[in-house]
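Lab notebook, page 48
Experiment: co-folding of the full assembly
Goal: obtain a model of how the components sit together before planning crosslinking
Operator: M.T.
Materials (sequences as entered):
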Amino acid sequence: MTAPEPEESAVPQGTEDQVVLRLHDVVKIFPGVRALDGVQLEVRAGEVHCLLGQNGAGKSTLIKVLAGVHHADAGEITWRGEPFAPGTPQAAMRAGIATIYQELDLVDDLSVAENAFLGHEPSLFGFTRRRVTASRTREILARLGHAEISPRRLVRSLPAAAKQVVSMARALSHDARLIVMDEPSAVLAHDEVANLFRIIRELTAQGIAVIYISHRLDEIRDIGDRVTVLKDGRTTAANLPARTTPTRELVGKMTGRSIEYVFPPGRDAPPEEDPLLVVENLTRSGEFADVSLTVRPGEIVGIAGLVGSGRSELLETIFGARRPDAGTVKLAGKPVRSVEAAVRGGMGMAPEERKSQALLLDEPIFKNMTLASFTKFAKVGFTDTGGERAASERTAKSLELRPPGVIRPVRTLSGGNQQKVVVGRWLLGGTRLLLLDEPTRGVDVGARAELYQVIRDLAERGVGVLLVSSEVPEVLGLADRVLVMREGHMIHESPAAEIDEDTVLNLVMAGSLLEGEPA
Amino acid sequence: MITETLPAEKREPRRLDEGTIRNLGLIGVLVLLVIIGIITRPELYSDPAWVRNNILVILQQASAIGVVTVGMTFVIIGGGIDLSVGAIIALAGVWCTTVATQSFGAAGMIFTALMVGIGVGLVNGLLIAYGKLVPFIATLAMLVAARGLAAQISDKQTQISTNETINAIATTRIFGIPLLVYILAAVAAAGWVLLNRTTFGRRTVAIGGNEEAARLAGINVKRQTVLLYVLSGLCCGIAAIMLTSQATSAQAGMANLYELDAIAAAIIGGTLLSGGRGTIVGAVFGVLVFSTITNLFAINNLETEVQNMVKGGIIVAAVLIQQFRYQSLTQLFKK
Amino acid sequence: MSALSRRRVLFGGAAVGAGALLTACTSNNPTENTQVNTNEGNDNAAPGEKVVIGFSAPAADHGWIGAITSNAKAQAGQYSDVELKLTEAGADAATQRAAIATLIAEKPNIIVMLPYDGKELNAAGIQAMQAGIPVVNLDRAFPSAAAYRLQIKGDNYGMGLAAGAYIGAQLKAKGVSSPVIGEIAGIDSLELTQERSQGFTTALAVYGFKVANRRAADFTVNGGQQAATDLLQALPKMDALWNHDDDQGIGVLAAIDQAKRSEFFMVGGAGSKAAIDTITKDDKVLKATVTYSPSMASSAISLARLIAQGKGMSDLVELQVPKEIMLSSETITKENAAQYAKLGF
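Observation: model returned without errors.
Model output:
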């Protein structure tokens, strides 16, 4: 389509001295999380290096380490041949690394020129030199091919695409040698993306390196030179050619197994009973549409789909935490319209964000376990702490909670054991239907196997389970029946035994990564 | 029966002790203040009758604000704030001392004060829970509005209570201890039980500690929010009666800046301003520390300005200690 | 009545019984006891040319300010040739400035104003004077002499002097050699409070006495009660007490009753009706009060009328009203209480 492909000339021939940035085994630890756990990255002058990875893979943390917002706890970063550890964002800027964040960090009520030179305004004896600032901004804007943007205009009045140009002007005002762009296309319309790519090509032609982050494979194919894939804070693949690496391989590196799954042995299909949960034509505009599904007692139903496919929103709507625009949810024949009704009816949910959505981190384990059932233990409004503790201890034991004991604060537990506490909460509450949203996120290998066993045991006892996971093997290994969700629609349903990972992956990926333009 | 306490748990009670440590710290501060008092005014402290009376005066001065602080502590633990407590007291005090209300006798006056407190608290709660106003804004607006209404009802005059029963509340002593002190003790004890032994308390901690988790566990967050502000209002109604009795009158300007004293006392008592944690015992100790400082400054004839500076210093110190302790926690939230 | 319905909405059925019976009547009704100059029999009382008086005072949050406004209204009502234009001064100096500007535009013959703060409203005074409208300043002086035609004010320092003199004389008469004297002040950051305390200290010094303990309250009953409780605890034995303000004095007296103390005598300040009644009955420790009377508002209206009509004060030789009048602070005791009863507010 576009005239002469700049391909071969733009892709630098990989000699070592062209490498401007190198990360080796970079680790960043937040309390309780290893956000980066051994990242390798190599960026050459004049290339567009794409970073690929799911939400939570560590891309944002990595950017912030480069930008001087966070400091790496271990590993080496080399920038233009020298060890690099920026103490502040200003230091990173001065060293020539500029970052354009997803949420553009422009000051709406300052002019284009003031934004471009924010923090390093040309000045004389403390007075800003407005004319100099304006003329230098004009030069940079012209270099970016946007001479039509007036340096004196207020940023507030600019459209999104122009704001992005201003962000880029800011990067150039620092004489950046590396520009990091975090999902720059997310705020742009289709034709504006083309313009963005034109600018990027001009920048790389001047020898500036670009780290480009996007979920859209088509963009990566179009603008990228090489790709590095992150998963769970680790580099799972480095320096793949952006245009020729098969989609399957990229997707596999992103979502594929980086750990061994140990599933409980297969089992017989659960008895055919009347469904416990009946969801009909459930719709929330912009999130999911016309979803119908059923879950029978003792059955595990798995929903596969990427982040953003509307899975979490669907679960929360079924649970009564979001109001549907249309459709019904019935639990054992009774409509569910609020969380209280859902819980009363015997529904429980382990949400995706365990810490922020499910746990009182500083409260003891047993109070977390009885959060949904303490009123049942209570007599005329007085809590029965002893009864709660005893029951929690029994549940903790059956879940093999480690370390044992229910008095320590939940904060001190590992991710897997925290998840057991959440599951235990619903066991204690006598739950008949459990909704699990990414139950093994942030859970280590050993604990995963235990959680799988717990989930299977629950089903054996007749509890219906509706499971959402972006890890396809998890869905296939646990569920009796598999539903595939893409961009808010249920596109496939089949018994787990009749579908394999490849088929699911293809179904999951088809629209969102390959066909451009997600909804 | 929980018989099987595992060995690992023996090391646990560290966290449970945290509150106790803080309370011991506050007792330490109280002891220190008394020691300063003994050193600076030995002639007063050498008289046992005076010392006994001084303790009672400190407790009595702490009584009304203490009752308000108990309610405030609940609101803060539940993740909110109530800036309108002083204004509610003024409105309740003024309303229960109008000539019309006084004609109903002591019972009518008490009923009116409590109903006004509950009613204003209900409005606060509904605005916050269902109107989705930020607690700070809603109760700030109520602060202004309730004082305005109080000024209108009283026609900006001081209303004298002619009811002997009401006025006797402040003078009655049982076994030598003022009735007001018993009221504070009763409210604090009830507050302690409510917070630590009832489902109401558990819900309060849950919605303050993690509102989303509480909601997704099936707790009716909105209803609980409303009830917390009603509870605070009720405490203000009780305090209004106590203050009216003490001053034998009420006016629109009464209980000036009580909101600040109550919040400060709750915080130095270990209540986390972001919610989810706090103790009633700590809050009462917080009030006693302030009351003792006032007393210390009074017996030494020192200016109130200095006293306010010392109070400010104590608040800052308490919060700094708190921040130091929860540093790891805040770091996690930043992520 | 809209207030009533609002209350109903607020509290639903539960309190309707109490709410419905609410009336505007309170325990001390200001209109019963306004201070009006009715001494007729001089030429000035005869109706003259019509005078429009603009009046502005802060919103009353205290009995004394409430009395200022009601006194002004009542006095104006005495004259058939006076029309009083009241403007709400709102809640702070800025609002009052705006209110004065509006008032100037209405071109009254003269303006009587009790400013929030003399310094902050100085410019407003000048503005009115320049517009040809004479200004009568009540109580809180303007720094610039060009900002007013007449200033009439109380004597805060004199109050302190009077209270100190009374206490000194009484104690000397009783033969107390080194008395323990307590003081309960108003809001400590106000200049008037400082002036009162300075006067008090100065007068006591004449007798060789000094203040043993001083607590500041906040001009509220509740604040008075708390401060008095602290003071009584700090001074287990006391000989005399001066409380700056009779409004907060209600709380001070309550605290004294609650502490069952009676070994001392107390002097009040301002001269409220409640205080004068108590002094007359002589059943409490309150034996005297030093005046700072809101009757100055009545006098201000009378004098404003004379200024507008170009008349002088008939007992003075001068043809015009003088530029400054400072009321003396008088001491009300049981002996002369009857005479002052009509001036209590």
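Interpretation: The domain at 277-514 of chain A is CATH 3.40.50.300 (Rossmann fold).
Next step: discuss with group before ordering constructs.
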